[in-house]
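Request: Not sure, any thoughts?
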Amino acid sequence: MSADGSNQTYLGISEVQYPHISPDNSKILTVGFGYVWISNYDESDHHHIYGVYDSGSGVPGSCHHYATWSPSGDKIVVPEYTYYGSGYLHSHIITISPDGTDPTVLTNDDQAYLYPVWSPDGEKIAYQKTDHSITPDEADIWIMDTDGQNQQRITNFEDAMFPIWSPDGASIFFIRRYGLNFGQFHIYRVNANGTDAKQLTDSDGEWFPSISPDGTWMAFTAFDESGVRNIFKTQLKVYVPLSVSINPLSTSINVGDSVNFASTVSGGISPYSYQWYLNSNPVPGATLASWIFTPTMSGIYYAYLEVTDLSSDTVQSETARVTATSVPVGGCSFPIEGLTLTKPLTPYLTLIAAIAVGFIVIRREATKKAE
């Protein structure tokens, strides 16, 4: 169907799930009845290429199967299941060729590996990892190299599943369970290095996110007002990290004068909260974007601003330096080196000297006459 929901076309492929279109848009990859299936985009040549569970497991045909293409289209990654006598399923991740040959095991311990998906650059595989179980209990999102090496845990929720890469490979979308019933999930996003996990949805039962190639839209399934699961889409906001700067960063003033600090905040999620600090101590009442500081004693002061956004991310500005100088008693002082003479001084000094000599001569003459 089209992105707006129109032009829906039934492909005639039934009882399979999790369709993925090949990078060249010629094939459709699905799973069902314990097999990985491929068909042409025009509905023809629908056939299975690989069985993903052993015959003794009794796993339902559509249980947690999930296969995705590599970006180059030459490999498929899928979980393969094994049944143990203790009664639980063990699943490990393998890669196969599009014709079902060349199976390569990437994981082989006793954990459950589910929902593998290739990164856009083909260098990593994200997946859900659980402890002996295919349920979301104790499940988290992990990534590894495409040869199974360098496994890294990305989330630490113990109820996270179904990872999907962003088109730029910078972040991973996933769902997290919020209730006791299976299917009660919200959608989250986390940086690929495991930082800055954020909840994106808060409706009822969001599931299976899919990101548009330009990274601006997210499609997902959720319950509508009548309780029917349907496909929805929402526009994604590009997250810009929170940052703050203040000015001035260096100034000198007299004791009793004031310096007006201003700030510039960008990124994060508004609204923001503010707290100014002076010499590493919070300033009572200084909780606005600007602050006026009036020193009462001479010395050097250090000031900075902490900003917290709606998601509780906090950043600190650079530290400003304020030098406060005491004013001498009796008024203002002007340093001699700061004065600039605009006219030559010698004529004035000569005139003053001449006048002084004249007064001395007149006084002597007056003294002689008096004698």
The helical segments are 346-370. The chain has two domains: 17-235, 243-325.
